[in-house]
Structures
1.
Amino acid sequence: MFEQWLYRRLITSPKFHYYVRIVHALMNDLPPPNPPNMVNGFKNRTILNKKIIYKPTVIQRFNAYFKIWRIEMTDTFLFKK
């Protein structure tokens, strides 16, 4: 009951959605979102003031590709784990 209340509170929070949009914009190299109208001065305290660009290394990209490839091969040829 308490966990459901916390979950509902988080999902309906404008600040939570704003931070999710910030992370989404930073990861996908999109323009930063506008802050919620109900919170004054909120933009000055966010991570938008810092220029953070996520660039995965070659090893991270290869690891992600290999994980996706392995899942696809498992699903395609029905290999047992």
2.
Amino acid sequence: MCSDCCSHSLTVANNVWATPVHPVKLLAHLQVYTETKATINAFRLSCRFGTGPNVFVANMPQELVDMVVNEILQPARTAVYKYWDELFACAEERCRYRDHFSEEEKEELRPEMEDIWRQGAAGGADFSLDDVLSEHLDSCGSDSVYGLHLDNKSLWQQAVSQGHHQWIEAGKFKHYPGSFDKYEEVLDKDFGLSAWISHQKIPSTLRTIFPSPGSLTPGEERETTVGFLKLPDKHHKEDASVYTSEDQYSSDGERRYTCDSTLSMLVDPKALEISKEQRSRFARAMQALGLEPFVHPTQLIAPSHKSFRVGKSKHSMERVFLFKGHNKPHSTQYPEAIEKERKRIEEHVKNLEESSWPKLMSLVNTNHKW
């Protein structure tokens, strides 16, 4: 590393009323809402004010109007959600090789796989043709498939990127727009809300409790994306920079970089309150966009770092501390304890999601780059 290189981190903090939502649904449903808004508005206006002999929807009951609108939105939402969720699966490292082949490519292989399946079935093997095809596709790893996987990860990150300030030099940042900015304008104009989207590493313990169904890069750290709808508010930023020099070595000869930074801010007491009108913004947005509260396990904080016992090693009881990542047991070693913890987390998440939203939250994101 050169002597004038610099490491930097940017921390953004916000105390605000917010509701957590699924990032794929947020992106997909906002896209469909934007693309169909003119058509749906024209239909609703015709139902309310349409006149003349060729207007057949005037005075249609509201229940029927809502049913027609749903018939317009639902197929579009399903198709767009499927596309973005495939990219998100790559971003979360939960995809398999089979997921990167088109339906046309699968159909081309089906006759060959059918012969193999028939041979196995004749020998008493208990598996389906789809099982044979999937197994074959998972064994067809190639650089082109892996390249598509990396492209999907990049496309997802670009799609949910929000306008941000990038470090230039100490204390100076340049604003760069993001692909999600066009939807930010829709949220602000139509609902008086904004979005908070951030990427989050999945701790090793959670990767054990909620294992991925498959990954092109086994053992690699997994990342997810979390999203929130929130009331617009000012962000508080703090940047910390570390300039390096050739003599910054530790006693063992390894390069070491450290930097402390404190972010403090005044909290407006009015921010602790939310009006009926502000609550109604969330209700309207959630209904119009077909969203519901979604809490990702990475956003839970275990009281007092609650732990659970997973087994006994040769020397001592081995414990896994949730969100601390002290140990990394395999899910096959202690299935009962892991399943118990999985159910506990899922129940906690369900209770949170079914509770009253929005809630007053402290949202903090730190981005560190070398």
3.
Amino acid sequence: MIRTSLQHRWSGFAEPLAAQLRIDRTGLTPVPRRWMRRTRWLAWAAIVLLYAAGWGESTVAALHVLAGAEPARVELGPQTVQAQALQLAFDGIFVLIALGVLLAFRRWPRPSTPAEPATWRARWRTFFVASVAVGVGFVLMGLAAKFTENLIAYPYPDVEGVAAAVLRGAASAMAGPMEETALLGVVVVALRRAGYSWIIVCITAACVRVPFHLYYGWEALLVSVWAVLLVALYRRTGTLAPIVAEHATWNLLTTPQIAEVGNILKITAIAVGARIAITAITPRTRRSDNGSR
């Protein structure tokens, strides 16, 4: 009896969840067959080149930390006002290039766009659910660290004055546009246009997201869960901008100067996002039954 009841409860949760995950609102269709081989070469070339330009140095630094180098001795970021400003300029140019690549794959050789643009309500909901995806990744890393006792805190470099601290916060927030445009948007759009399955998309998204997070330790392998959840969210909603905004906000709230308030806001966003996600996967008939009691 108990086993049957548990099976019924699981199926009542798993089936609506699977139904939600099967929804594809990206509007991405493979290019014509005669363009397929060329598109595949271009897709992998774009992903590799963008990764090397944006995170090649960070990956090397993360691997040094993972190998035992002192985080403070590894150059993980600029510290002066001038260096921070230059980094922001580089990041801005990189985002524009990545966005151009994304749009090129969307429109070449024939446009492939969502049938209906996401509503503002859908965008706000996506923002909060993205917080859940990121939060799940960090929670899993924290739980793994309880067993390994090896999690390394992010080695924030010292800054010179208030101006440099403000610019560092801005530079930290720029990780949102950089990562989500190149490592989510380009990966999904380019590979789907090239005819690859969603499984290949998820594997690639995880592979490009983990390496430069390895300064946390081997627990950073669990960042792959975060990456896959964001792919699923992008597929389900068809909108990238809220995911970009959420990542930028998350990083900004992690800045040491506002970390205490930031943690409260992040937990609140996760709670709101969890409520939205649970409501979406709960069958309406069950919600109606509960409401009538």
4.
Amino acid sequence: MTFLLRRAAMAVIAIGCLSLGACDKNLVKVSYQQLGNAQSWNLENKSGGDANGMWRIYMLRGVVNDGENAKPFTFDLSKVALKNGAVVTSAGPMLHGAPFMLPVNFKAPVAPKVAYTVPYGSGVMFVIKEDGDTDKAAYSTLTYKSASGESVLMVPLDSKATPAFGQIDQAFLNVLHSKQNTYENTYQPSGDKN
């Protein structure tokens, strides 16, 4: 009986490793944090709103390509998504949120055994529009639409934090930028605390 229990436990661990990619020797970790939520935005004399949806504002902390058998990897912001499939928005606040926002077509090549962080002075935030969700305090985790041969684990820095809520404008982006600085000083690109 003990043998069968051990075999069952090993099978559960193996399935967990495969589903999470945690046992993959090519695993790339992408650390991020959700900073805020908004139902409207007003930037550069342009604005928009949606009472039946929410813009989720995130920051990219780092991309760590240090798996045992790491190979070259290119982080592609367009592959970041919510679990429901919603991807980084290519309009609205992403286009008018400079200097806080990453470019919509942001890509970063990350060599093996290297940790990448967005260069100082560049925007690190990005926005995903979630239709049908109006929960102002919701924390939404992210996934990565990996290509064949890629194994990417999205690592939230603090999934228990309540995102700020407001209208995406310069004042709100300044508040989120302050939160971003706190996370950058508290967490390493891998998602580990300093």
